[in-house]
Every structure is written in C-alpha cells, then in structure tokens.
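## retry 2 of 3
previous attempt timed out at serialization; input unchanged, resubmitting
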Amino acid sequence: MSAEIHPTAVVYPDTVLGEGVRVLEYAVVGKQPTLSPRSTAKREDLPPAELGDGTVVSTGAIVFAGTRIGARVVVGDQACVRERVTLGDDVVVGSGSLIENDTTVGAMTKIQAEAYITAYSTLEDNVFIAPRVVTTNDNFMGRTERRHELIEGPTIRRGARIGGGAILCPGVEIGEEAFVGAGAVVVEDVPSRAVVVGNPARKIRDVPDDELLG
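## retry succeeded, writing output
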C-alpha cells in the first residue's frame, strides 16, 4: 500500500486506503460517531471508511466510519464528512465545509469553503456549491415526533449551481443546470435551467446555452 499518513494523523483500524491516498497533519479517518440521545441519525455498527486512489484528507479534516469516498477526492482543511456519506470521483470538499450523514455527492462536484450540506441530501454529478451555502432538512426545526418521518434534505440535480450564501429549504429539488443566485432563499422546487434570485427565490430567466455542460 502506498498511502501516506502523517505521524499526527489518526486512521482507525480496518480503514481502507487506496493507492496514493494522503492523510495530512491532524486529520482523522474512520472515526465512529458520537450521537446525542435526541439525534435523528441511525444507530448501527458502521463498516470501515473507504478512500479511493489518490484521495487527500487535508490538515485537521475528519472522515467518519461508514463513508465511501471515490478516487482523487480532496477533503479540505478542517472539513468534516460524516457517516454513511458517499462521495464520487474527483469531488472537492472545501475548507471548513461539513457534509452530514446519509448524503450522496456525485462525481466532479465542487463544494466550496464553509458550506453546510445537511443530512439526507442528494447532490448529483457536476454540481457547484459556492462558499457558505446552507441546506436544511427539518421544517419542524426539532419539534414534534412527526418530523422524523418527514426529514429530507435538498436534491440538487446534475450541473446545477448554487451561489454564495444561498439557503435551500427542506426537500426542495434544484433542477438540472439550474442556477441559484447568491443569497437566494429557495422555498420551492427550481425547474431545470432556471435562474432564480431573491427571497423567496423567483425565476428571472433561463441559463444560456453557452453555460451548459458539454
């Protein structure tokens, strides 16, 4: 195995590291979660974390057990990837960002610094998340037992782009190639290729052809 583990890093037993993986200073990989008695996260024995070839876990970052990370992923300084998360190949998780449990992130997606990806979210391939984007999953904000069956993060379809500081409310779907402007508050589904801005977010035009993925 050609993985590089810094002497100050912690890699828990049975963690699977692909060829050329780098775990940098003070990073932690394979950590079991410590859950509050009131947590909505599932409680189960988690399999070891798996990191694909060429992935880098940067200084001070944490990757939890039960998570599978593809090849050539970069988990930025002080970022956190919780349990039962799947990251596709060539994903970037920016410095200080947090991806909560039971979330799927598709290949080539970029999550920039200090973004918050809530539990039970789905991000498809080639999604762009700008700095300090916030996603949410609980319309009841911690009250009533009914919320447990209704918790749902956003679904962000292939090629969609979310501008800096935008807020996505629980369960919304952002369509393919849609564009959410900076600071927008998205309270309902956004159609494919729509450009939306404001609070609440409203459509102002379509994404032009020359901005679409090839």
